[in-house]
Each structure stands twice: as structure tokens, then as C-alpha cells.
Model the fold of this input.
Amino acid sequence: MGSPAGRTDTVRAAGRCVLQGGRGRRLPLGAQPRGDRRPGARAQHLAGPAVRSRPRRQRSRHSGAAVRVPVRQIMMALLLALGLVVAAACGSPSAPLVPQAPSPRPVPSATQVEEIILSPEGSCGRLEGGKALCWGSWGGAMLKVSGPAVELVDVADLRIGHDFLQEPQQPYHDHLCVLVNKAVQCWGNGEQRQLGPDSGTSSPTPTIVSGLPPVARIALGARHSCALTEAGDPWCWGGNKWGQLGIGRGRETIAQPTKVEGLGKVTQLAASILDTCALTEDHEVYCWGENLRGEAGAPGVEKAVVWARNRIAIASGSVQIGAGYSTLCALKMNGAIACWGYITAQLGIAFEKSTSGMVPDIDDATAIAVGYSHSCALRKDQTVWCWGRNDTGQLGDGGDSETTAGPKQVILPGRATAVVATAKSTCARLEDRRWYCWGENRNGQIGPRSQPLIATPTLLDLSQVDLASQ
Done:
């Protein structure tokens, strides 16, 4: 769209500096309009369109007749001076601008990360404003859509389903799902149809999972996926060999999302490798799936699979649930923490004696995070305490002992507001929005890959990690 008459703009076009004058004409500096070759036309064009002023009448001393005394020359001189200034600012009219290589997209600060989702082979962060990015390694072939080159946007939730059961050399070791505009999109390993009905056994790019009502949150196991709808109903799909979909006996894989019936309104879902648990609005916890170590809450080992929902008595009165490899925990309303499943590694309780127990010495927790063989809690005073095994420094005390330890405080340089855990790694967010991480780092999931083990809390710097990109 042209500039209004009488207006002169400077713009850059096709690598040259041009003046944009009246009637929408765009010409290089120093060029004359075609068909205008009058003396002074070049200078007039350089200066821009003529500005007319009302003529001033003056009486001749000899004839007494009125004559015109134009001021066009004065205005032209002023506009010519303006054109020369613009030309000097833009550079020589005959010298094209040097093309500049596109600047790399800046790496966001870790303080922009609202939530971190950890995995043994890579991690993802959901940023303020709904963007998401991932870093680390998935065998070089897992994540292809995130990072500096391409970013996920409008992400309300993001989860990683780590397949501990798959051979490490397989190209797709995990699957990921994101929640965008109340719809679930998944990609990665789909061997058990955990990516949904419209993906095959693997997908390098996100595919919408069809057949779901509007979704509020997601939860992923090793080979199955679940979604919690806005109405409070759990839906699951993928592998069902161990009953992890909660729909009873039937096919071992189900690609179509299926509603889990009979729970009432659910407020949270959590999934371990082969189990799923639901927290209901009346603060009860129900689980289903593999039960070889009591993960589904059925006592003893004689019942390998729990096909229907099973109420977890020790978790009654809970406000949050968390799931690790084969251990599940619940934060109770009174600040205590109950755990069940394979708690030998977590609490040091012999498997033969019990498959459930209370975490000792903590009665004021406000949040929990469950890993493979360790767990952590955020306490009321905003300190972080961890317990369980410490063979990769996941307790953050500088040690690397196989021995199970009771709750220990993690020394952080400030008050914490969140804590997250994966197999053998942990991260905490402080009040100033900085993230500190510790534990296993062999795939660069919490820091530079040059540090395979980070035994004490270390500041997360996204400029030092391997951001996944296409």
C-alpha cells in the first residue's frame, strides 16, 4: 500500500535503501521517475514530492501589477538536504546491503521452565507461555520436533513414557505425549500401540490421538498411555498384557482409547511401567495392572495381575499420587507419605515382610516425587528430603552408596517450590525460578553429557545441554 501524498518514508527492499513517496511508488535512491527528465527533476525526486504552498502576491514597484514569488525552491532545497541525510544513513545508493546469515534462535534460560519431565535418556521442559523443548539423548533418533529449530507451542501438559523393558539399542526407547488445545499428541515408540489408533509401531512426529473427549492431564507408562478428561474420566490405550489399561481381560494391545469405568470423578492419574493408579475426588486411590511386587495393592505375590480397580487402603485420604518403576506413593492430607509395591529399595523393608509402608520421619510434606529406587518430598518449610538408594547420587548428598537410606535433607542454595524425579535423577526448583539437579546424567538428561554423574545439586544451564532438534 503506497504512502499518502506528501509523505516520504525510508525502507529497505531487495537489499537496497529506497524512498517511498506519494502514490505508492518505490524507487532506489538516486533514480528518476520514468518519463520525468526535466532539469532538476532528479533532485526533486531525491527530495521527494513537491510541496505546494499558496503563492504570495507582491506589488511591482514599476507596474503595480501583482506577481508570484514561489517558495518551491526553498522547500526543494530543504527536502534535498533531508534526502542526502537519509542516503548517508542507508549507505551508498549503488552499494547493496551485505546479506547476513540468520541468527541462531536463542537458548531459553532454565528460569523460564515451569515444569521439568525427567527420563533416563532425556528430559523435557514446559516453558512459561506454553512452549516446550527437550534435551538429552534418545539413541540419537527419539525426539525430532523440539529444540532451537522447531518448538512445541501451546503445551498444557507433557509426559515421557520410558520403556525399561526395551533393549537400549532400539531407536525408539521412549514415547512422549503432549496436551495441546485439550487434545493429546504422541510420538516415539509405539510397539504396543501406545501412540493411539492413527500411528504405527513408531512415529518421529506428533500424531493426534483420536477418539478422546477434551483432556485435562496425561499419564504414561512404559507401553501404555492414559488421559484424564476435563469431566474427570480416565481413558487408556496401548499395551494391556498386564491389565494396565483397567478394562479387564481381552486383547493384549488396544490402540483405541477406552474409558475406565466405575471410579467416579478422578482428580489425578499416575502410571508406573505396567500399572495405573487413580486418585478420586473423595481422596481414595485405586490401582490396576501388574502385581508381582504388590504394585496394584493386592497383598502377596500369588496374584500377578489385578485386572479390575483395587482400592489401596494405606493411601486413603490422599491428595497426590506418584509412580516410579515398580513403586507408588501417595501424599496424605496430614502430610504423611504412604508407599507400596517394590518398597525394599525405597524404604529398606524386606519384600517378604510387606509390600507397603509409611515413610518414616516425615509428617509435613506438601509434594512428592517418585523415582526408580528413590523418592523425594518437598516439606512445609520448603526443604527437599530424599530417601532410598544412592548408587548414582540421586539423594544429592555427594555419596554413591547402594545402601538404602532413610530421608535425608538435600542442601540447596534456597527454598524449593517443586521437586521431580525419574529413574536415578532428581531436580528441584527454587523460589527464584532456578533449577538444581543431581543424580545420573549419562545421557545428558540433567546437565552436560561430560558429567555422567552429578552427586550434588548443580544449577541446570540449558546452554550446556544437548537440545534435541531436527
Remarks:
- The mean pLDDT is 79.
- The chain is about 5% helix and 40% strand.
- The CA atoms of residues 236 and 279 lie 15 Å apart.
- The longest strand covers residues 155-162.
